[in-house]
Amino acid sequence: MFRRTVRKPVKGLVVKALPMYGTGITINGIPVSIERIIHNLFRIDIQSNNRRAYICEHPLASLKMHGIHDAAIFGIRKKWDFARPEDRSAYVLGLGPDAVVGPPDGAISGGLVEAIEKVGVKNMDIPKEETTVEEEVEVINPHGKIIIEPAEIGTGLHIQLKLGPLDPIETVLDPYKGLEPRLRSKVANALTPFLVGFTEDSAFHTLGDLIGDIAGAGGIDNAYVRAEVFGSIHMLTINACRKARICKAEE
Question: Could you tell me the sign of the dihedral formed by the alpha carbons of 201, 203, 208, 209, in that order?
């Protein structure tokens, strides 16, 4: 199978995405990796030298729900909103509003998912080396519990997610197709539980966060993931990815 990128440049409300070829995903010029994450309590922030990007899980989820492996994300905001803690932090550090790449309404997409749907995704002539974890990883903390188990090539991310008292969500994220369109749309527009509490809608937002963290930041293509979340999903997913030994998946 081959790596995929966005067919042509697209723009959402707070970010734009450009096609890239074999580079992986970058956000504001920062290559995305677990090692570059400097905050994972209420959101995912990455940093490299004097550059920093806030709320990276949302554009990452938007890309991974389309099965995209290579893209350059750039923030495009020009006005501050100091009611947002991310804006206040960016201002203090001498950064611009474009450092904050998550939409202000608490949804995943901010128009990026829909923009990608309009232009489409293209396969490149670069083979994709699929990944998994070497052995089972478990993280338990006050925010809940997560288990990530190895899986062979072609499995995708088999996800079972339970948010608070709600019924579990079960789905598969295909490394090349992403999520099926109807579910992708639900996740794209779902609001964070930090704003609306534990609702069916926020459970789908949490699914998007999990995808952005594990498939996006963690770069894991194939695994069985079971998560029970009572607080911050990021304190489970990112800590599990840090603990995991990520390796090439075998058939």
Answer: positive
